[in-house]
Amino acid sequence: MLAIDVKQLRKQFNVQKNREGLKGAMLDLFKREHTQVTAVKDISFEIPQGEICGYIGENGAGKSTTIKMLTGILVPTSGHIQVNGFVPHKDRERFVQGIGVVFGQRSQLWWDIGVIESFRLLRKVYRVGEADFKQRLDELVETLALGELLNRPVRKLSLGQRMRCELAAALLHRPSILFLDEPTIGLDVVVKTEIREFLKRLNREHGTTILLTTHDLQDIEALCSRVIMLDDGRIIYDGGLEELKARWGKGREVQFQFNDPIPNERLEALTGGLDVRWTKENEQTAKVWIPLEINVSDVLSRVVGTTDISDIKIFETSTEEIVREIYRTGSAETDQQRADANLDEREPTARAEAVRS
Amino acid sequence: MRIAYTFELFREYLANYIKTKLTYRADFWVEVVSDLMFSLMNLVFIFVVFQHTPALGDWNQSEVVFVYGYFMIAQGVFGCFTNLWNFGDRYIIKGEMDRILTRPAHSLAQVMLENVDPPSLVGSLVGIGIMGAAWGELGLPFHWYDPFVLIVMVIGSVLIYSGIYTTLAAISFYSDAPTGIIPLMYNIQSYGRYPIQIYNKGIRFLLTWVLPFAFVGVYPASYFLAEHADRSMAWLTPVVGLIVGAIGLVVWNRGVKRYRGAGS
Description:
- The complex is a heterodimer of chains A (357) and B (264).
- Chain A contains 13 helices and 13 strands.
- Chain A is α/β, with parallel strands linked by helices and 357 residues long.
- Chain A folds into two domains: 2-11 and 44-243, P-loop containing nucleotide triphosphate hydrolases (Rossmann fold), CATH 3.40.50; 251-316, Alpha-Beta Plaits, CATH 3.30.70.1560.
- Chain A has a six-stranded mixed sheet, sandwiched between helices.
- In chain A, a hairpin with a 2-residue loop joins strand 8 (226-231) and strand 9 (234-240).
- The longest helix of chain A has 18 residues, at 189-206.
- Mean pLDDT of chain A is 82; it is low at 334-357.
- Chain B is mostly helical and 264 residues long.
- Classes of the chains: A alpha/beta (357), B mainly alpha (264).
- Chain A binds chain B through residues 13, 16, 59-60, 63-65, 68, 71-75, 89, 92-94, 96-97, 99, 101, 103, 105-108, 110, 112-113, 117, 120-121, 124-127, 153, and chain B through 5, 8-9, 12-13, 16, 19-20, 23-24, 95-99, 101-106, 176, 257-261, 263-264.
């Protein structure tokens, strides 16, 4: 069964035009001018149950608007949505019983009272039985390490602590779909990692479907098997993360730090016959660019065996660079042929990381 | 079922309110005192007027105070439950409506519950006192069913206020800045607490049939008065309450569909 089914979804907003100057303001008093802005332009996608899907795009691409339509907050202008078997905005009160929502920039919790009090109130709002609540709470307290936070008022929590509580609050009623709008915004690396681990576990153990928007592509790399990329209200890419990288990752770069100064000719000679490109950083440092068809290990073995090296770094095209590139060109569909040609020979572990030896 | 659920929520929200306010105790008393000061000033105004004239129309001082006491009861209950003054700012412009709409209870009920304001009930208690004192002074008879009639009347009056202010709050869903209307409404509303017979025909019509503020004051209170008793108008109070309340709910429900969120 599909968790989320969206067809030809569109959302238009009427935006007031404010005319300039005093005269304009006077005119606005009597006759307002409106412009129509289409935030989401006839998008369609399907998400099966149990999937973690990343929803990415620049600011103003229409991510939040989509999420708000999927959660029943906004009513779409046209199109068809079905989430968890409901049309969100039509049967809102029954529908939201089955979903969890975390907006990174907005709190679900009551500001002045202890976290546990908020949880108890939410238990009543979602009509969760006392025994069930207890069991669920214990589980969440353990996995999110909330023990010490429960009796503190929310306003005295740090952002990371608050975020963990928000996640717990959204999951008390065991929703089968979890919507996260920028869940890791403003958090430090440790908390980010904890939250990612928690989400993975949630998905694995409870089969919770997760749809998250984020600006942090590391969230996507850590969590998502699938990415939907949005630009100007349209979907420009929908598919696996690996495929995205394969299509757009153009090669890798390896940086060598030599113990002795090394001339260019010597470098060229080392990799003779391979289609690689050397660039010198300084006397003792050089970078080699290796296209996807050539194995990094082939190049390494030739260089390492014959020279005295103090350091090696491997640079992968990061997802971030790929995404930046896609936004720059405005579409993920260009360069198709090239991508197809490269697809077979790519290495399976495409990770943005620097390896130090 | 659904009503029972909402009532249970009310209890929980109230408990939370109390917990919150216990941390800010001073705040609670400041609110009570300022509410009372405001009511007291209006009462003093009535006494000052009657020092200059023995009667307003054919209403004497005790009768006017009696009506004012009734008004205070209704106003206090309304202020406790329908505290929508900053709805537009807080829920629409700052986008807190998002949170409301992701929870499985009626959106208006949630907004009302989140803003419960029990200190204004103190005003109702004072209103009961004022009404009781005027009752004695006027030497009105007391029937066993009078308290029940009073409860029905107050519920009707509160529904009228709530319906009107819910409608006004719901305008925020359509327009960006409706804030100008609420102070205006507040001014018109204050006419309702004096005997409507002292106004001219136009205002009387306005306060009875257009913005029925007279049903929060003189009409229901007149049920208990000997001289000015107008039973048929008094019994219209719960009816008008249901109608205006229903209008408020419908406008709200339609407005929510037009909610557009804030920011990203």
